[in-house]
Amino acid sequence: MADLWINVVKKVNFIDQDERSKVLQLTEPLHDTSLRWSIPEPVAKIHRQVYHQIAEPLHAYSSLIERDVTRTFCIFEPPTPVNYTEREPELFRVLNAVARAEDGYCQGMNFIAAVFLEAGLPEEDAYSTFVYLLHHKYMSQFYKDSSIFLNEYLKQFQARVHELLPELAARLESCGFEVYLYGIEWFTTLFSCSSKIDLTHAVIDLILANVTDVMFRVGIALLKNCEEQLMSMNFDDLLRDFKVITKQVDTYQIICDALTIPPHPGASSYGGILQMTAKQTLPQWWPFVKRCTVSVEWDKAIEFGSVAKICFLWEAWQRTTSKWPLDRRNIANTVIANEALCLAIWYGSIAVGVFALEMGAQVNDPDEWGLRPLHFAVVRNQPDFVRLLWRSGADVNLRGGNSSVIVPQWYMKSPVELVKVWTLSNVEAAEMILSGNVCLDCNTPFHLFNNILKRQCSKCKCFLCPQRCYSAHKCRRNSPTHLIDYMWLYGVPPMAHNVLTDDEGDEDDCSTILSKQRCFSTWYCSIVDCHAKFSLFSKRQQCSICTYYVCRDHLHTKRVQGHDCGVCSCCNAN
Amino acid sequence: MAHRKKVLLKVIILGDSGVGKTSLMNQYVNQKFSNQYKATIGADFLTKEITIDEKLVTMQIWDTAGQERFQSLGVAFYRGADACVLVYDITNPISFEKLDSWRDEFLAQAGPRDPENFPFIVLGNKVDQENERRVPTQKIELWCKAKNAQQPMSFFETSAKEATGVEEAFQTIAKIALQKGQDDDIFVPAATIDLSGAATKSSGGCC
């Protein structure tokens, strides 16, 4: 393939020197000849491990995938040296993983995954490379439930054809041969169903080399190369022969033409027309979206905050990785612990968050977008997590957003900056802590007088009240994770030190109900409504029955076993 | 319409992913069956010339993708259709249940003049797998009657693999579509309707 690019660089008169240097890189021999394509390390590091977590477990889309797996490899023309039936399980696993990570499956994906496998990529690299294209090259938008993006993209393409090949565009239009009749297949399969396979390879090369608007330009070059033939055809001929003709065009010629076609003038140099169109359809919070990097079972366990279940799943994961070499196993464990932490933050499952940290999650590790756990704690307004992470050594001034992967935008901020500019949801509670309006340890609000006296730890930059908390503060910044006393951070699990070990048999039921509805926190009221408002800045009270902490407003006096006890609203009601 | 004029019928095949739309089309047009068809993305097209009542008819068959999320782009495919073939898989009850939504979606997007009497035909494919059947014949009969009591849709059980019922099914839909075209000729002022309208429309500037 390097030969193709050497010839291309010789032949093409590049409009943009920057683009020339990108293509020039493709002429260099590959470092690792077994890998046809490589992607940025931050993405590869995470997703190579994640693959083993999500490739096997079945989910809602698995049956759809199974149906397509047998109808995919046939796009590779004979002579076929490999027996493709044997490779179908591989394709299934890769697609199963991609569908989990994307939370959706759409036809077209199967051909791209097959191209990666056919080119010799190992399964985990086929998966990671595909996810990279989907997440960081905006391709995921092609496969979303609504076809708004695809429709918009095709319209833009048609407009561009009109601009650059006006005669052909007019001709096709007068015949009624619309862009939908070929464009859907072109763009959702990266031309793999409609051209020679080395064109798809070249397209992937160019996209991964960050060349702008690759698909648009290749599409137009493809039309340009068949223009003469297409001009003389009527609608019936077009229907019958269009695909045959486009399949015969020479790859080298298309690539040379594509690179001499200027990118869309209105699109940014970064993501081109794809990124411009994606802006309209991406979720508002993107890239702060829920991660689907662990199996559905993990996701459920984390959502319900079930430490026992996570413990069990973690052990199963340990068995999976136990045969791997030590360094790889360490990376894999850290990556999965990080992903579990991120999801725990998303759901606000503090207990699982603590567990993830104990299992080796790194509080300052960036995800594939360069975002860190604290960023998520901010946008999800999780004061518990802001505290937990900060006390565990998270850096509140560390910028998020990896510029090599995402466009520098407003989310390239440190947590402290982010909490001030985030407007898409209420982050008041997180802001209280990050801006130093309350003591990180005892939750005392800093009013007038205190505000002047409050102290800041020189290492971790946290704010503490001048009395007890500052002198007792042991800074965890830079200390090894396993030395941190997490029990202090998140309190003793409620049922463990129940002062009233009564003999009523319904104790277990009570605890399961409570753990689903309430968050155990030593910092403020665990009654859901109150918790959300972050209202306990004063003295905390402990319920004698469930041992959760509540604020004064939610404490009631109840006579239990002959004593007057303070009980929370929840236990009082039962 | 007695004179021998080239007539063009645009026939759309719709149905869930994997029910065998591509196989049916290829069996009908090329008399071939293969396990090696790729999943259809967007649409594929084949044409076949047949003679019905001494008329030469060109059937332009549009095989569409079964993936639902391509449905909303269907307008481009459905426009100007003369007939619609709905396909389900007799071993897959879900594909049968989805017939309603395929039919509704088609009528909504194609917007035919007379939706009540638009020529539909239903094919229950894969009868070669009779022992795995999960949609009984009575069910589809009832469904066809429920849609139109006076003139129930015709249905065929087919096997693209063994070529069972395929020829008859496509012959039937061609006849119904032609008939419908002629009826329209009678009832609608001649100036606004022409059976070969689809042909002149779609072949555009070429003639």
TrEMBL record, chain A:
GO terms for molecular function: GTPase activator activity; small GTPase binding. The keyword 4Fe-4S does not apply. This is Rab-GAP TBC domain-containing protein. It comes from the Eukaryota. Transmembrane segments: none annotated. SUPFAM superfamilies: Ankyrin repeat (SSF48403), Ypt/Rab-GAP domain of gyp1p (SSF47923). ANK repeats lie at residues 369-401. Residues 1-211 form the Rab-GAP TBC domain. InterPro entries: Ankyrin_rpt, Ankyrin_rpt-contain_sf, Rab-GAP-TBC_dom, Rab-GAP_TBC_sf, Rab_GAP_TBC_domain.
TrEMBL record, chain B:
InterPro entries: P-loop_NTPase, Small_GTP-bd, Small_GTPase. Keywords: GTP-binding, Lipoprotein, Nucleotide-binding, Prenylation. GO terms for molecular function: GTP binding; GTPase activity. Pfam families: Ras. CDD domains: Rab7. Belongs to the small GTPase superfamily. Rab family. NCBIfam families: small_GTP. PANTHER family: RAB FAMILY, RAS-RELATED PROTEIN RAB-7A. This is Rab7 family GTPase. It comes from Thraustotheca clavata. The lineage of its organism: Eukaryota, Sar, Stramenopiles, Oomycota, Saprolegniomycetes.
